Amino acid sequence: MFPFEGLQDFEIKLTEDHELFRRSVREFAERVLAPNVMRIERDNEIPQEIYEEAKKMGLMGVGIPEAYGGQGGDVMMTTIANEELSRISPAFMVRIGANHLFTTPVLLFGTEEQKRKYVPPVARGEVFAAHANTEPGAGSDVAGIKTVAKKDGSHWVLNGRKYFITGSDKASYLVVSARTSPPPNRAERWKGITFFIVEREWPGVKIGGKINVMGLRGEQPNEVILEDVKVPEENVLGKVDEGFKVAVTTYDRGRVGVAAQAVGIAQGAFERAFNYSLQRQAFERPLISFEGVAFKLADMLAHLESARLLTYWASNLAEKNSPQAVMAASLAKLIATEVAEEVSSLAIKIHGGAGVEVRTGVERYLRDAMITTIYEGANDIQRLMVIRDLVRKVVGRTVELV
C-alpha cells in the first residue's frame, strides 16, 4: 500500500446524480459543440452563441458554491464536466477552466468582500476571468517570476510581463502574481511572492497578441503586460509575501481538471479510431479484422480506462481533502495526459492518410493532448513532486532533486 495508508484511500464514490449530470453535459457537447468544432478550428475563435448556451445550463458555475452564484456540485462533477466537454472541444473546456483558475484562489484565500464582488459574475457567466502567473522565464518554476509590486501608500504598483495566459483576451478580472520582496536565500526562493486581483480596465493593464500555439485552437493564450498598474490594498489576495501557497494550492486542484481534460481527449480519439476501423475497408476486409489494428484499439481502451479510474480516484481524494490528494493529482495528471498523447497518436495511425488531413479533425486530438502534458506543471515536474513526497514520507524532510 505504500505510500498510501489503506484500501479506503482507493475508494471512488459515484452516484446517480453524477451520471445524470454526465448525460446532460454530453447532450450539450453533442448538440452545441460538435457541430461547431471545425468552425472553431478554422476561425480560432469560440462563437458567442456557445457561451450563451453554456450559461443557460449553468456550466460556467459548476463546482462553485451557490452562495457565490455558482451551481454547486463536488469535485467529481467538475471532473465529469471537464471530461465530457474535452471529448468534443478541449478549447471550450479550457475557457471554463481559466475561470476556475481565478475563482479557486479567490474562494480559498480571498476575503468575504472579494468573494462577493468577484466570484458571482464569473460563476453566472456574465464575465470571464484568468490566472496570470507564467512568465517568459518562469513556468513550472513559480518562484522564478520577475514581475514586481511596490507599495505606494494605500496601493501596490505592479510592473511586469505575463506569458501564455489562457483566457486573458476576454477576461475582466485576473489574479496576478508579483514579487513583493526578495527571497531571503536560494533555499527559500518561494518566499516574497504575493497575488493580487486585477481588473482589466485599470490603467496600465494591456493584453498582448494571441500566441499561436500548436493546439487548443479557439482558446489560445495571450501575453499580459503590466505597466505601473495601481492595485488597491484591498485587492491583495491572501497574505503579503505568501503567494507561493496560493499558487501551488490552486495548481494542486487544477491538476485533476487537466487529467480529466486528457481523459476526454483520449475518449474522443478512441471513439473516432474505433468507428473508422469498423467502416474502412482494406483488402476487402474491415480494418478492425487486422490484428495490427485490433491490438492497437485494445491497448488504447486499456490505457484510457486506467487513466479514467486514476482521475476519478484523484477527484475523490480531493473532495475529501485527503493528505494523499496532492500526490494523486500529480499521478493522474502525469498518466492521463501521456495516455491522451499515446491514444491520439495511435488514432492517427489507424486512420492512415486521413488521420493527418486537417479536414478530418483527427490530428487535432494529438495537438491538444501534447499541450496537456506541459501546462499546470510539466509532467517531469509531476515526477519530481511525486518523488519528493515519497522521500518526505520516509525521512521526514524534503530532499532537493536536480
Automatic annotation (TrEMBL):
Residues 131-229 form the Acyl-CoA oxidase/dehydrogenase middle domain. The keyword Oxidoreductase applies. SUPFAM superfamilies: Acyl-CoA dehydrogenase C-terminal domain-like, Acyl-CoA dehydrogenase NM domain-like. Keywords: FAD, Flavoprotein, Oxidoreductase. Its cofactor is FAD. It holds the Pfam family Acyl-CoA_dh_1. GO terms for molecular function: acyl-CoA dehydrogenase activity; flavin adenine dinucleotide binding. Residues 15-126 form the Acyl-CoA dehydrogenase/oxidase N-terminal domain. The keyword Protease does not apply. Residues 241-389 form the Acyl-CoA dehydrogenase/oxidase C-terminal domain. Gene3D superfamilies: Acyl-CoA dehydrogenase/oxidase, N-terminal domain, Butyryl-CoA Dehydrogenase, subunit A, domain 2, Butyryl-CoA Dehydrogenase, subunit A, domain 3. Belongs to the acyl-CoA dehydrogenase family. This is Acyl-CoA dehydrogenase.
